[in-house]
Specification:
The protein contains four helices and five strands; from the N terminus they run αββααβαββ. The chain is of the alpha+beta class. The strands form two sheets. It has a three-stranded antiparallel sheet with strand order 3-5-4. Strands 1-2 form a two-stranded antiparallel sheet.
């Protein structure tokens, strides 16, 4: 398997998460300045949307082959599920692996957000 960015892959395989405004966020995608400027207000209104946007991974950034993207996606989906369950045992998370055809290229992505009570 050809890996395009080994450092990023290591960050994803050993994820660190932070909590801001009731959002659980993948630390490698987080910038305090950007969050304050662009995401803080939305997080107060729609934390799920902020999580799904900031906790989004394109596997084409890690490997060019769709089969390898799929394989990595399944592995990382499992790693994140276990990691999030251990860190936040009282929370439920949606960890969605998606495969789509974009511009005749297969794109595998992962999105993660907290399942919140709708009351």
């Amino acid at each position: 398997m050809e890996i395009l960015d080994k450092d990023y892959l290591l960050q994803i395989l050993s994820p660190h998460f932070i909590v801001r405004d009731d959002c659980v966020l993948f630390e490698s995608h987080f910038s305090e300045a950007t969050y304050k400027a662009h995401w803080h207000r939305l997080a107060l209104e729609n934390p799920t949307k902020v999580e799904a946007t900031l906790n989004h991974i394109h596997f084409s950034e890690l490997t060019p082959r769709p089969d390898d993207q799929r394989e990595l996606g399944i592995k990382i989906q499992d790693v994140w599920e276990q990691h999030l369950r251990a860190l936040f045992p009282r929370c439920l998370f949606e960890i969605k692996l998606t495969e789509a055809l974009l511009d005749s290229e297969t794109e595998v992505t992962l999105d993660v957000w907290t399942i919140r009570d709708k009351r």
